[in-house]
Amino acid sequence: MPSFVLQEPEGKTSTEVRDMVWNQVVAKKVRPRFQTVTTKSGKVILKPMDKETTDALKHIARVSTLLQEDRLRWPRIIIRGIGTYTAMVGSQKDLLAQNPELGIEADVDEEVVKPVFQTGPRGKSTTNWVVEVNPKYYSKFESTTLYLGFMRCRTNAYKVVTQCHMCLRHGHPAAKCNEKEQVCPHCGRKGHKALDCPAAEADPTCVNCRGKHNARAKTCSARTAYLLGQVRRTDYGIAQ
Q: What region holds the CCHC-type domain (predicted)?
């Protein structure tokens, strides 16, 4: 089921908006069933638990500015081994025409792939691209071979977890971090890096889950929880 983000029209507090949404749902003779989640940034998200509540919130989102439907993301894949001379932006038609095995017409009206960013070593003859794929066609692109220009490329699901180098939280890069002080990945305290940690000889303490491991550990429960959350917020087109 979709989630809905509470908006704050000018002159209204989040509590007032929440009360207005509640009254509108109740007015439709619906017994509200939803979970409310408040993010660290202060965003209030309503997660309906049944169809009746979902339909009521969808209607409110359509006819007012109180709610915005939080749509699921498109899944991402990484295409490896693309020639650095290959232009990915605006290349959908060429990609589909060169790979008829995908079974998608080159002149299809809808957007099939959206290039997101380039990754991999610089200064090489080949590179990698992370692209978003229309959920309707995701199964055709996951773990397959694509021909792009003069290169034979491999694709895989892209499930890398972004971790900030400043605060060590998951989900954003350091360039978008509000933290002013470096957080130590070893002890979890602010003001120094791991190389300068005064508690270097002691057991590590993860700033994210308080576990006895380095904050960059791939076995961190907070990292796993974030990754599972990303999966839940992604439309893989299973129902297609």
A: 184-198
Among left, alpha and beta (phi > 0; psi -120 to 50; other), residue 50 is beta
N-to-C CA span, the chain: 16
* Residues comprising the chain, all counted: 240
What Å distances lie between residue 163 and 1, 38, 202, 226, CA to CA? 27, 21, 24, 10
Full-model pTM: 0.66
Could you tell me the pLDDT band of residue 235, with boundaries at 50, 70 and 90?
confident
pLDDT tens string 45-92: 888 889 999 999 999 999 988 888 877 889 999 999 999 988 888 889
Instruction: Tell me how far apart the alpha carbons of residues 79 and 156 are, in angstroms, rounded to a whole number.
Output: 7
Distance, in Å, from the CA atom of 12 to the CA atom of 132, rounded to the nearest integer, reads: 36
Contacts of 178 (CB under 8 A, 6+ apart): none
**How far, in Å, are 7, 10, 91, 207, 218 from residue 62 at the CA level?**
13, 19, 34, 40, 41
Cα dihedral 176, 179, 183, 189, rounded to 10, equals: -160
CA 10/CA 27 separation, integer angstroms: 24
pLDDT > 90: percent of the chain: 56
Burial state string for 113-123 with b = 16 or more CB within 10 A and e = fewer than 16: bebeeeeeeee
- Looking at residue 1, what is its pLDDT? 67
CA proximity to 193, closest of 221, 158, 165, 154? 165
pLDDT in tens, 149-163: 999 999 999 988 889
